[in-house]
Amino acid sequence: MNKRLFFIAPLLVFVVMAGYFAVGLTKDPRKLQNMLTGQPVPEFTLAGLQGRDDTGFKSVDLIGDVTLVNVFGSWCVACRVEHPFLMALKQKNLVPIHAIDWREDDKSAGPLWLKKHGDPYTLAGDDPKSKAAISFGVTGAPETFLVDKKGIVRFKHIGPINQQLWQTTLEPLIALLRKESSS
Amino acid sequence: MSAELGHFALILALLIAAVQATLPLIGAQRNMPAWIAIANPTAYVQFFLTTLAFGCLIHVYLISDFSVVNVVQNSHTDKPILYKIAGSWGNHEGSLLLWVFILALFGAAVAAFGRNLPPAFKARVLSVQAMIALGFYAFILLTSNPFERIFPAPLNGQDLNPLLQDPGLAIHPPMLYLGYVGFSIAFSFAIAALIEGRVDAAWARWVRPWTLAAWIFLTGGITLGSWWAYYELGWGGWWFWDPVENASFMPWLAGTALLHSAVVVEKRDTLKGWTVLLAIIAFSMSLLGTFLVRSGVLTSVHAFATDPSRGVFILALLVFVIGGSLALFAWRGPQLKSTGLFQPISREGALLLNNLIMTTALAAVLLGTLYPLFIDVIGGAKISVGAPFFNAVFLPLMVPMIIAMAIGPFMNWKRGDILPALGRLRFTFLFALVAGAAAWSVETDGPFMGVIGIALAAWLGAGVIAEIYERIHLFRAPLSESIRRLGRIPRSTWGMSFAHFGLALAIAGMAGAGGWKVESIQTMKPGETVNVGGYEYTFEGAHEGQGPNYTILFGKFTVRKDGEIFTVMEAEKRNYPVARMPTTEAAIHTTLMGDLYAVIGDAEGDEGAYVTRIYYNPLVVWMWIGCIVMMFGGTLSMTDRRHRVGVPHKRQHASATSDPVSSTS
Fold it and tell me: Could you tell me which residues are beta bridge partners of residue B582?
């Protein structure tokens, strides 16, 4: 009896895993996109990062201008890949980029990371309990939200943003949103 | 023209694989030699066609044929020729073609070199290989065709990600895939054995060289990837528990466990079901790894959604290969009868302990890697699993394993005795204590894990040497007798000793680099000096230069130790105009005790000041040397005589169990 179980157990484990994969597959992230876009940004109030002048980052800061909100983590390798592109955006001063530092425990890791690699952000908030990240529905870092003048999420991108995405989607969309009135 | 030829060759390869997957298998079941004989030629033809297709893809890259979508997205006329070639597999479609090319290569290798295999068994193995290949051909042709054309053709391409334009990373994927795909042979052998309902010492001997080959390549591939991360990403780290890294590490863990359990099958005729299961798991992890990396299920969920048909196909393929083989295992596995009795305190007991720890570690890494996906499906809170989880789970598991690794080789087969084994290790134990104390005294408030790591490395390294010392009866027998014994040690035993010793070196490197790294970030004006890890770095200023398809900013440092000039280092920051992306090339000066590592960052102000990052990474080179020694050990074991000579099964079996000292693992 015991022996039979040894031979059947691997199959059972795999069936459960495959079930998860299958459900994960039906969760079409594009649907997620539609659910989120068009909604106002969730309410959040975050403290500033150590060593930065700003007083923090909260939802009302997003009203009045077209902005990008970038969720990053010092532990996230993909963010490191994305980072030079954000720095290039900042240098050209094309759009304000705000940050949510999605962290696990070390308060100084994010600020240190920015000090090391450069700081492309206008405002940055510290998100120690993942509260803001969760209410934004972040599935993994990095993730970037395009927010219009009224503070409504108009586009969301999971994974590093790059030149290609900038040219094909973000840049035209930003130009379009800038033409909208803010009231 | 090349694109169409390649496409056509792929379609033909699919058809040939369909023949290879069915006829030889039926022939073997019904005992029809003519059908069995189809296995070899189809394997060769399939390999030829896939080589042709792969060659065509490289050709369209070489001539920069921008009417092919794949070339447009990943290449550029200004790109150096090496990266034009490497660009062909630096993307989803091309890498799948590389994958199936290597699969066909291994299939043809089994056909050519597996002369000592019984024809029916070999036919089954090649049929199973062709089934896997069939799935991949269909996947490539239906969802990921690298030869797709674009009209109108653009004037130039979008270039390959500059981070990937690096010699280390150009050969990293082929190396890794040789490892991944190499496990398909162990898998096919396991499936064929399940179909025949028989696993014996001969089976274990047949499967061993193939598994070793895969393991060597995978070790090399992981090392290359880690080395690349170390010098190219420019922040002095070498392992990040990134899903992509885990994807290559999981098959390695399973494959290492398989190598050890197959020895027990060969020597003691037991642990058969377990070994077959490990062969299935090792390849399943390779498949999962390929898809995790290539589909980006984990790093960015959107990759699935860009083409949902790909995701569905991937899942179907995983269910067919992994689910199918595990179902076969559940059905036929119980028929594998073991004859050997099992005593926990014995060589096989030690090997089983290795297996249990390896698979536990594997389960932990798998869980950590897939956890975000599981949580997402349940709809719970989003949780990221990072390095802290893996370090907390993985490192404590490695401590008992390394302790046991030094003891295991002292145990006899069948019935070992733990106390004499420990007695022979008393000097090893003292040495480990001294090494740990020395590491601790360097910096008394240094990291605990670093001290443990150094002590463990010393324990394992000295344990390996003590085992050879015991084996040749040094100082207990006349010297001539010891030399004679030394010469008689089989290659596979040397293989084990080298592999274990290599791991000891690598652990020392990991402990040193992880524990005592010194890091300093500052803005430096020309002429300013900073002291890092006992070396004085003077910034000599920055100047610009030109590479083949990038511009370079050089940052020059003169390094002094105790006032004397030690070395001059030049760190580079490259800027790729086409991809509009900078990369860092750290300046690294390697010494046996540690690496001097300098990176130049952005300009700061107008006075020629730059942000610089300077690291001292102790013992890093030991890690790379250790990995090479491990690969060398694997190669020694692979070329052992018993894999080349078809020794009659019974005699080998009897002689193997009678003399524990000369037997191998």
Answer: B575
